[in-house]
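so my prof wants the structure for this chain in the tokens format not the other one, which i didnt know existed until like an hour ago. anyway here's the sequence
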Amino acid sequence: MRPLTEEETRQVFEKLHKFIGKNIKALVDRQDEPYCLRLQKNKVYYVREDLMRRATNIARDKLVALGTSIGKFTHSGKFRLTVGALDVLAQHAKYKVWVKPSQEMQFLYGNHVLKSGLGRITENTPAYTGVVIYSMSDVPLGFGVTAKSTAECRTADPGTIVVFHQSDVGEYLRAEDEL
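here's what i got, hopefully its the right format
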């Protein structure tokens, strides 16, 4: 487990910035205890610093995971957020979308959110920005990227895609081996 390089840190923070905006500072400089980002086998972990120091006693090849897995670097070197980042994103999300109960299962199966399944959306949400998707009972289901702004959603047809799917909690079952 090693610290991220400057380039890796920049990629991770750029991706997180799409979802949580300026709250990135609150992510690392927490009031209760300090957290850091660490890399282990192309996976990025969000770890408490005291836990990370204790893990130095364990050999790298024996260490499976540490902290919360928030994403991974692909073979081409790009950073991709995974479903493990949902808890972190949900706490600090800038823009949110709530889906109707009839649309929840469709989203959890990996489909995009349609206008007909849209319950609520945060005011002034721009197009092509990161959002966290919630059920109507405020349970985080996943995250994605808006296809339309809030103003465009009001006039869109019911079959129009409003949010592009990126990740959801159904991946814990669908992609069990990869996580």
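also thought this was worth mentioning. The chain has seven helices and eleven strands.
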